[in-house]
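Aim 2 progress. For DHA3 family tetracycline resistance protein-like MFS transporter, the working sequence is reproduced below.
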Amino acid sequence: MLTLLRRPLREADAIPTFYALTAVAAFSFAACFTLNLVFQYRVVGLDPFQMVLVGTVLELTCFLFEVPTGVVADLWSRRVSVIIGFVLIGAGFAFEGIVATFTAAIVGNIVWGIGYTFTSGALQAWITDEVGEEQVAPVFTRETQIDLAFTIVGTLAAGALGLISLRVPIVVAGTTLILLGVVLWVVMPERHFEPTPRGERETYAHLKQQFVAGLTVARSRRVVRVFLLVSVLAGLASEVFDRLWQVRVLDSFDMPAVFGGDEAVAFTVFALVGTMVSLAASLASGRWLPRHVIDAHPGLPIAIAAGAQVLAVAGLALVGSLWLALAFVWLRGAAMAFSGPIEAAWLARNLDSSTRATVLSMNSQAGAIGQVVGGPPLGALATRTSIPVALLVAAVMQAPSVVAFWRIRRLGAPAERVAGSPTT
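Predicted structure tokens for this construct:
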């Protein structure tokens, strides 16, 4: 089977192929996810615990399969890995949309989660191999622009298709991704693939080495310790917000008359506004924030952004107005977009080249662990009490992150390179 996928039937150029698959994938993901939670709540009938559990299963699947699926990309082919990945993602989407049961949601998310791990890393590695490390930077820049443009197109398509039925955009997205996999089988080139040497492959032994190396760095760098702690705290709190904010809105408020009371149209507009607000916040952090603040006191804007996230989670739980609730949802997205580039730069400056990739990966896994551990209990709490109660608990759980960042706000560079800075 893998041998059949190794060579295209009609080879195309790598860069146009990469741009085309980026556009189709961005469209499909936006078409699926814009109304996916509304679909799960209204059509499938999931309760808050079940909705959070679906998300937790997805996170756990990605965590467990990242290494074994990476073997395909390392040993056989980046192309093969990408094709399998998109077909599985599409199959998972379509299965959930067509069957529309709790079991189908679980199975569908497992399938598409496995598919995502096939594409994770393999897609970027493929285009880098084909284009070359020196020429790939502008390709990734263009990819980001295409991704944003077609995310907006996919969001609009979700609203239009959702007027037919809430399951339609999910099934269309899944079918589109399966067709994308077929087209890639026909045209996707792979001229420069070389199997990864055994010593450089991702294995569970390698992950253990990463973990040990990350702990060593964390013990010596206060900033790294704080980032790992905050990633766990954010993960503990984020799953319940991400999976239940739409349910909170649906349960508590009527859709505005301007949308004709239609939930598909309303949530499409809400998603578009949120995307634009987050984009503006991301641009603002780079253009308007003084450079000396980012370099010398990076923890200050990040602590403020973390406080805004906590405020947004608590605010969503407490307000009695639809537009205030949405304002808090958009505030959280904007705060994350605003602080994201600053956090990335700050953490990178506190890591040595030899351990940078290791600790960045470890930081991502800390967030995933937090989501897996925190999601089900908070989901169960939301079902047994109410969503606002679960959101308030989530806000309390994330609140220490504000204090943690505030206490290290002046550690702009590694402690050993900042005179008088503590290391512990």
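The longest helix spans residues 222-252. This observation will guide construct design in the next reporting period.
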